[in-house]
Amino acid sequence: MRNKLIVFLLMVSYLVSAVSVSQGEELKKKQYVVVPPEHILLVIASQPDCPLKIENARLLAGTNGGGAGIYQVRNQGTKAIQAVTLATWSSVDTGSTTSWPRKLTNEVVMPGGLVPFDEEGPLEIVPLTQELREKLKFGTMLGVAILMVVKVTFTDGSTYDAEPTFKALRSHLRQLNGD
Fold first, then answer.
1. I need a labelling partner for 177 at 20 to 30 A (CA). Which of 2, 24, 163, 169 fits?
2. DSSP 119-145
């Protein structure tokens, strides 16, 4: 259980840490390194019938703490999209979901377009040196993080719904972890 808690805290730190900025304060670049796959392997779920394609996915660790998950999500379908829900879940049965839009808007994503997930501000990705590897305690593999599309709502009211697959994945991971 202790290992699950440690991995959960690391995964949450890597995936949902945000840069907070007060009004009038200039955004400062935070430095990140790409989390090596031998530490946490990021996997994009195969969803052949999904209208979205996840591209350029990476887990980042802040050189001074925190982290982020970055990726692009492209509408490869034929219909305009009004809402999206993604999930990142780990092999130790921890994770998070994220949605677009985060607030009510009339914005849509046309076929071929990218879903405009909120950016955290300027990111600077620096090389992973041996010194940073030691500082960030990158060592043995902590687990696998699975990134998948959970739901897509189109402007015509129809949906792509992978919620049953997502629930089955979480159930399977709980069984593997003895929960």
1. 163
2. P-S-EEE----HHHHHHTT--S--EEE
The size of the chain, in residues, is 179
CB distance 90 to 16 below 8 Å: no
- How many angstroms separate the CA atoms of 32 and 51, rounded? 31
Task: Count CA atoms within 13 Å of residue 29 on its CB side.
Answer: 8
In 3D space, the residue among 93, 97, 90, 87 whose CA is nearest the CA of residue 174 turns out to be 93
Cα–Cα distance for residue pair 11/54, rounded to 1 Å:
19
Amino acid identity at 41: L
Give the model confidence (pLDDT) of 1-23 as tens digits: 444 433 443 454 444 333 323 22
Contact yes or no for 73/84 (Cβ under 8 A)? yes
Contact 117, 98 (CB under 8 A): yes
Domain borders along the chain are: 2-176
The token pair at 127 is 């090389």
